[in-house]
Design a protein that fits this description.
six-stranded mixed β-sheet, five-stranded mixed β-sheet, globular
Length: about 350
Amino acid sequence: MTVPVMSSLTDLDHCLSQLLDHSSPQLLSSHVIQLLCHQLKSALLETPNVMTLQSPITLVGDIHGQYHDLLEIFRIGGPTPHTTYLFLGDYVDRGYYSVETISLLICLKLRYPDRIFLIRGNHESRTITTNYGFYTEVLNKYGGSSAVWSYVTDVFDYLPLGAIIDGRIFATHGGLSPSCQQIDQIRAVDRFKEIPHDGIMADLVWSDPDPEILDFKLSPRGAGYLFGSDVMHKFCHDNSLVQLLRAHQLCNEGYVSYWRGKCVTVWSAPNYCYRCGNKASVLEISHSNFDTGSTEKREVLPGQFFNVFEASPQNDEDTVNGKSMNGVNEFDGSAYIRSKEIDYFL
């Protein structure tokens, strides 16, 4: 069956107005989301596993359904289409507005394809979204139907796995893999599928740096690896890179730098899960014209700047009003009451 596409930019602008021009974002219909997802899948078919991007560009870490904090990012980092954004994955789960968050990002990607870039995180997965909120939120917001979840998770299979910025910086969601020594190995991966349990694709979305080790070590997450300084330096040397930029880990101050800026984590969900109280950040890269031999102590490379921000007022309102994750309110007797024990690690 042939699925029609959105007929014009006017349609996309109308969808954006539904999400942006109201005191609370308006849900797009299931049919409209189906059309949007079909159109985005067609566009992403032509996108390589590793995109080639240029500065100036602003990198955004995990959002996790915190829609109003995403709007805060656009206020701080600059509005579209005047600012180029690379989003590093984990758009859904945890937060109260996963549906609205991914709807907005899909609309923006279609409306401004050369300004908005999306890569895949470990939560862009059917298995993870079934267990950590997005699936339940869709059921609650669409009258028990899971169709929107199916449309969106199909799109996740099409998202690229990383980007090279200015030919010198590699950006991905998680980290490195013992199965991958060359960027060309990532380019050769078949990404159009659910994230596997192991291998290069799994490691890219699950792995984490560890300043206490030199090589690879099994991750306590149960997927991916921890990687140390020797691994990081060798990967950069062998691929003529100077830096790895990634997300995936909660940072109390909004970011963490390892090995004098060789590896940097950017986290963009403030007051994560409406209870962690952490700051968030976006990483602005104005240029990559720097001396890699500098011995100056640094957290980021020249031309890079962390814009740190606090949770939006609406985030605080959701916390005070008792809104929970998964798109539903907590109340006794609900079939959708979330667990009081939150696994922040995943």
